[in-house]
Design a protein that fits this description.
There is one protein chain. This protein is of the alpha+beta class. The chain has a domain of about 300 residues: DD-peptidase/beta-lactamase superfamily (Beta-lactamase, 3-Layer(aba) Sandwich). Helices cover about 35% and strands about 20% of the residues. It has a five-stranded antiparallel β-sheet with strand order 12-11-21-20-19. Strands 2-10-17-18 form a four-stranded mixed β-sheet, with no helix packed on it. A hairpin with a 5-residue loop joins strand 19 and strand 20. Helix 10 packs antiparallel against helix 18, helix 11 packs across helix 13 and helix 13 packs across helix 15. The longest helix has 29 residues. The termini are far apart.
Length: about 550
């Protein structure tokens, strides 16, 4: 009986042992990968490898204008511990120029609980990164992450920036039944195409910690793939990254803007506004208007607008004076006197000489012959009464606002002052029509929306323009503008690579201009430069224009 009980107990024990072993085998073989992943996940701390989980914004050749691998200062609040927190805060404050209280507020909730890992500063210098590694404060790391914006971000005003969604933006996502993203586009292409750019899952840069949240010694960082579906797309611009860099360098921080258009199809090859701002929002702007995109903003075009009058006169067959005398002023019928910028007067002039000399009296007189309504008509033909950029919707703004029946209003508009405002894009648009033989163009800045593999989802085709003027009129104006650079108000840049045709503009109220086309013999580029605090159109903006053309010519091998 005793042996029987021993046998039964042995069998029960053996069965239980095999059952446990079977369950262990099942856990190891059938569910091993799943359980290992769960265990690792419970003992990992991570941060997204990409600064923003968004599609890319590309230049015309598919080069990314967003995204750059940079050493970044990353804080893991759950690893923020030890007796040296005060020293760590002092170090971080010195490194970032942030107050200690502000940094601590980013690390801890008011309850003292730690927050999620975050980037405190991007674009660390090599010395800064080495200093972070040397100090080795708990939870403070210098990691190589893919930052959303390049360290010296180009085309910042075009690209825009992202930020945390506000309440209205959050509600918009919730109303659509979508999850609220970490960030949304706040300006520029980032804002206009936010729904297209959203939804790219980022791999994670992770470290393994123990059950108390401490980093395990000897364990390296690892990249953990994100298996979520990529629902984002890329936006391809017409901007040429190399052109953009040349234009921004030429502006050199002067308050203003510069635009380069393809004279044939209207593509915006570069559009720079200065001063720039930091899209990472880490460095304060250099001025209060740094966030204004001056390339798309409106200013009095000054004497550049005289080309509209010249076009109207030639196209309408109005007999332009060939022996007009400029004594340095023009007396209107109502007794008012309009002064010329050249007080001694230009003497005897025809239309070409008046363009070369930018003579106010000549064009005030010509404006009285043309009339305000015809001036409006030809401004409309050029597309100057409303700014349109393909792929970049803009709010409607009035560019012409004057009474064509009031002689004083017509006189002011005739010299580009009160009653007319144009953007650098519009001025370049006007110059492109003159340079290409008289055909209107519509500026374009977005080429397409495409998937990561390059498959095109949507295109933004160029638009064929109407003939604004006859080729003969265009040729007459080209000749006058080339003479302006060789002998007139633009002669300071007569040695520009390939030659140029151009027109100066010096507003009595706001800013100076130089707009033109290059090369002179076979124009490729229409370029407008606006400087808000310059002294004369033939000086600061003309020199920027020359630097741009010289740079583009060298890039394209046109100097020989």
């Amino acid at each position: 009986m005793k042996n029987k009980r021993i046998f039964i107990c042995s069998m029960v024990f053996t069965f239980a042992l095999f059952t446990v072993m079977g369950q262990l085998a099942n856990l190891q073989l059938a569910q091993g990968d799943v359980l290992t992943s769960r265990a690792q996940a419970q003992h990992m701390k991570w941060i997204s490898l990409y600064g923003e989980e968004r599609g890319d914004i590309l230049d015309c050749y598919g080069r990314s204008l967003t995204g750059e691998q940079q050493p970044s200062l990353v804080i893991f609040p759950s690893l923020w511990e030890g007796e040296n927190q005060g020293l760590a805060l002092s170090f971080l404050s010195q490194l970032t120029a942030l107050d200690k209280e502000e940094i601590l507020g980013k690390i801890q909730y008011k309850s003292g609980a730690p927050k999620e890992p975050f980037v405190l500063k991007t674009g660390l210098s090599q010395a800064e990164a080495e200093s972070v590694i040397k100090h080795n404060f708990p939870g403070v790391f210098a990691l190589s992450l893919i930052n959303r914006y390049q360290k010296n971000a180009i085309a910042a005003h075009i690209i825009g920036f992202v930020g945390e969604p506000n309440e209205t933006e959050e509600n918009a996502f919730l109303d659509r039944g979508d999850a609220v993203p970490k960030s949304v586009g706040k300006a520029g292409i980032e804002k206009i195409y936010d729904d297209v750019l959203q939804g790219r899952p980022s791999p994670r840069l992770a470290i393994t910690v123990d059950d108390k949240g401490r980093r395990l010694a000897g364990i390296n960082w690892q990249i953990v793939p994100n298996k979520a579906k990529d629902e984002s797309a890329n936006v391809r611009l017409t901007i040429n990254q190399d052109y953009q860099q040349i234009v921004e360098k030429a502006l050199g921080g002067q308050d203003g803007a510069a635009v380069v258009l393809d004279v044939e199809n209207g593509d915006i090859l570069a559009a720079a506004s200065s001063p720039k701002y930091d899209p990472n929002m880490e460095d304060p702007p250099l001025s209060n208007n740094a966030y204004v995109n001056k390339a798309f903003s409106y200013y009095p075009p000054a004497s550049v607008f005289k080309l509209v009058l010249a076009t109207a006169a030639l196209e309408e067959g109005i007999e332009t004076p060939t022996d007009f005398i400029c004594p340095g002023y023009y007396d209107m019928a109502d007794g008012r006197r309009v002064k010329c910028w050249y007080e001694e007067g230009h003497g005897k002039e025809d239309l070409q000489a008046a363009i070369m000399n930018s003579c106010n009296p000549y064009f005030v007189h010509l404006g009285s012959l043309i009339g305000g309504e015809k001036i409006k008509e030809y401004a409309t033909r050029f597309g100057l009464t409303g700014q349109e950029i393909i792929g970049y919707p803009l709010a409607d703004e009035t560019t012409l606002d004057f009474n064509s029946l009031v002689a004083g209003d017509v006189a002011n508009v005739s010299i580009g002052e009160n009653g007319v405002r144009l953007s650098p894009v519009l001025v370049a648009q006007m110059m492109a029509a003159i340079a290409n033989g008289g055909r209107g163009i519509t500026p374009r800045i977005v080429q397409s929306i495409e998937e990561a593999d390059g498959m095109v989802l949507q295109t933004f085709p160029s638009r064929e323009g109407n003939q604004i003027m006859s080729p003969e009129t265009a040729k007459t104006l080209q000749t006058a503008l080339i003479a302006t650079v060789q002998q007139g108000t633009g002669k300071r840049i007569s040695g520009v690579a390939g030659g140029a045709g151009g027109k100066t503009g010096t507003s009595q109220y706001q800013g100076v201009w130089f707009a033109g086309f290059s090369p002179a013999a076979s124009p490729k580029w229409a370029i407008a430069v606006y400087i808000s605090h310059g002294s004369a159109g033939g000086k600061e903006p003309a020199l920027v224009y020359a630097q741009i053309v010289n740079g583009l010519s060298q890039l394209e091998g046109l100097n020989s």
